[in-house]
Amino acid sequence: MPKPSLFALRRFIRRAEKIIKNQAETQSLLDEAQEKVKQNKTKLNKMIDELKAMIRMIQAWRRGEYREIPIRTVVILVAAILYFVTPLDFIPDFIPLTGFLDDATIIALVFSSLRDQIQAFIKWESSGRIFEHEPLETEEELEEKIQS
After folding, report:
1. 15, 50, 54, 96: which could form a disulfide with 111 (CB 3.0–4.6 Å)?
2. Per-residue buried b or exposed e for 79-103, using 16+ beta carbons within 10 Å of the residue's own CB
3. C-alpha distances in Å from residue 32, one per residue of 42, 61, 71, 83, 86
4. Does residue 21 lie in a domain region?
5. Residue 85: which domain range?
6. Can you tell me the distance from the alpha carbon of 108 to that of 98, in angstroms, rounded to the nearest whole number?
7. Residue 1, domain member (yes or no)
8. Total domains in the fold of the chain
9. pLDDT value of residue 1
10. What is d(CA 110, CA 5) in angstroms, rounded to the nearest whole number?
11. Residue 112 placed within a domain
């Protein structure tokens, strides 16, 4: 059976670009991901910390608290979370023993490829600092950043 890769995220990228423009949709996706983590702790054992860090990073970005992150990184993180919450992905989540294998692989690949940025966020987060920030971008401003 072929292994999923970052290539598997391609179909989720466009949806992620739309989701990040809408605060309610972004929050709904993150809430769904957090609920899925809670319900599947034993199955997700090894990727829980990575997933939680990714969710917190998106939340901090969305609230305008953390802006040291390129928009493409946000899109990739949201696409990975979207992949995670989608039950019918590369390996459907309802398949016993292997249903979360592809999700774990995608999360690990994204975490690995964005490790420096995620670690910088975790360091910022643990410092307890909240930077003065600009207000959240409008949908048009986000669209412009995504297109550039």
Report:
1. 50
2. bbbbbbbbeebbbebeeeeebbbbb
3. 17, 18, 22, 12, 10
4. yes
5. 6-147
6. 16
7. no
8. 1
9. 42
10. 9
11. yes
| Residues 146/11/87/111 CA torsion (nearest 10 deg) | -60
Q: Check: CB of residue 73 under 8 Å from CB of residue 117.
A: yes
- Going residue by residue through the chain, which has 148 residues, state the pLDDT in tens, using 9 for 90 and above: 445 555 667 778 888 999 999 999 999 999 989 998 887 776 666 778 888 899 999 999 998 899 889 999 999 999 999 988 887 655 555 555 566 677 777 888 898 999 999 999 999 998 876 655 555 566 666 667 666 6
Q: How far apart are CA 117 and CA 26, in angstroms?
A: 20
